[in-house]
Predict the 3D structure of the following.
Amino acid sequence: MSLLIDRIGELVTHDGPPLEDAALVVEDGRVAWTGPARGAPAADDRIDADGAAVVPGFVDSHAHLVFAGDRAAEFAARMGGSPYTGGGIMTTVAATRAAGDDVLRSNTRRLVEEARRQGTTTIEIKSGYGLSVADEVRSLRVAGEFTAETTFLGAHVVPRGADPDEYVALVTGPMLNAVREHAKWIDVFCDRGAFTGEQAHEILTAGVAAGLLPRIHANQLGPGPGVRIAVELNAASADHCTHLSDADVDALAGGDTVATLLPGAEFSTRSPYPDARRLLDAGVTVALATDCNPGSSYTSSMPFCIALAVREMRMTPAEALWAATAGGARALRRDDVGHLRVGARAHLVILDAPSYLHLAYRPGVPLIQRVLP
């Protein structure tokens, strides 16, 4: 079966400038043709976009969706002036360990469906709220029911009372061996209060040896070695990138590691935003993601993150949309999503707006009319 979407007011394919008065044909789940509506070929079925804009589906390359409970009280305390330290992670660990699989599955499904209603068609899901062999395995099993982009984050924080060296040995030994068949990626939180550069390097190296692909939480709470470790190990993505030195920026510009920015975290923690303009001007590939989690960024909305990136991080609307689609795909090393060139998966969003500009122009307004597939 083929599907024609015509009378598109503005079509963003990321293959040149947006097309006006355009059409798109889908065959077997892939983009088969794009061009002027007047030249569109016939198809078995048709959707009339009625002048609306069509953009690629959002690719959310950083999300923590397998958990139980919430941390609304922690958020309220931050809004009252308490600083964010990351220490509340253990609150979620306790709730997650105590929850049954059905609770974790139901909550993950709710968040995945919530993200989809806001235009997200590809999503990465991390573990990291289990921090024991059994709980990390079941977290990744649940994540794998919803996405192929599953990430082992046993190195989220060191559990209370655990010896850091012994915990690193657990993560790189028995835990890694138990989860490797359920994960595609390995991640580590390399920052103060979490894991040192030496520990992060050891954990990621062990993951690569086990067949997993590396990514890293880096430079969120302060300067550190995380970004340079990411580039050294050819990690797909260094995420947060809030506190960067000139050497960090140069390393990212000279490597293949994507800088994934998570403005929802800065919004929710009242922290300084990353300097996206500095990265873009240096030639760094930038992605946007939600960092959806119950503590520091409890949003599943990529449109909200686009609006924040434009308003607070000096990205243009076009740069922000690219980062939330093609950039996210690069952060997952995918070339089949994040764009609508011929041959791409037909993951797309019909907006309730005439232009993609409205994603930043009308923040907080539900502009997602339809999501395909």
About this structure: The chain has a mean pLDDT of 97. The first strand starts at residue 2 and ends at 11. The two ends are 13 Å apart (CA to CA). Residues 58-331 form a domain with the TIM Barrel fold (CATH 3.20.20.140).
